[in-house]
Amino acid sequence: MNINRILVVGSGIMGSGIAYASAVGGYITIVTDVQEASLAKAKSYIESMLEKGVQRNKITTEQKNKALEKLSYTTDLETAAGKADFVIEAVPEVKTIKKQVFEKLDQYTKKDVILATNTSTMSPTEIGSYTNRPERVIAMHFFNPVPKMKLVEIARGLETSDKTAEIVKFVAGKMGKETVLINEFPGFVTSRISSMVGNEAFNMLMEGVGTPEDIDRAIELGLNYPMGPFKLGDMVGLDTRLSNLQYLHSTLGERFRPSPLLVKYVKAGRLGRKTGKGVYDYTEDN
Question: For the 3-hydroxyacyl-CoA dehydrogenase C-terminal domain, which residue ranges apply (predicted)?
Answer without folding.
Answer: 187-282
